[in-house]
């Protein structure tokens, strides 16, 4: 469904924003103070990853509460596991991008372009059958395509393990 496709887009966007804290620390010179402490580079990156993962978990908990109690939408644990896995992938990409990009302005410009283009190409905003055949094949390079495909399989009642190809492609 396109509601879940849009949710994949929102998750990608919010996880990318969550990982922009690294650039904030560079901007406010907090990162140089952290580097003076006995904290290794990998510990710093893992701490940022865990912080973003906690942010993701709070987002998904909020989604569960709204879906279950306000809108009375039936969801499954497998859906939340898929959303969590998808969010973790965007956290890793966001950390990589924030380490590569030099300024907050560049990061703030790149994030909406990357997430929106990949969501459009991957079928999060409209059905893939509306696109020409070459675009449908090109959609397979996006994480949105594989996440949407996995969600459709889940919505048909199949197991999360039934789409190992989708999970492997997301990785």
Describe this structure in words.
The chain has 171 residues and is an all-alpha fold. The protein is built from 9 helices and no strands. It has helices spanning 2-18, 21-27, 30-36, 41-70, 77-100, 104-121, 133-138, 143-155, 164-170. Helix 5 (77-100) runs antiparallel to helix 8. The protein starts with a helix and ends with a helix. The mean pLDDT is 91.
Give a short account of the largest sheet. Answer: none
Ranges where pLDDT stays below 50 over 5 or more residues in a row are none
Q: What fraction strand?
A: under 5%
Order of helices and strands: HHHHHHHHH
Helical element count? 9
Radius of gyration: 17 Å
Helix content: over 70%
Average pLDDT confidence is 91
What sort of overall outline do the alpha carbons produce when their principal axes are compared? globular
Overall SS class: mainly alpha
Compute the number of strand runs: 0
Distance between the termini: 22 Å
Write a compact overview of the structure shown.
The chain has about 170 residues and is mostly helical. The chain is built from nine helices and no strands. The chain is globular.
Defining traits:
171 residues
Which secondary structure elements does this structure contain, and how are they paired or packed?
Layout: H1 2-18, H2 21-27, H3 30-36, H4 41-70, H5 77-100, H6 104-121, H7 133-138, H8 143-155, H9 164-170
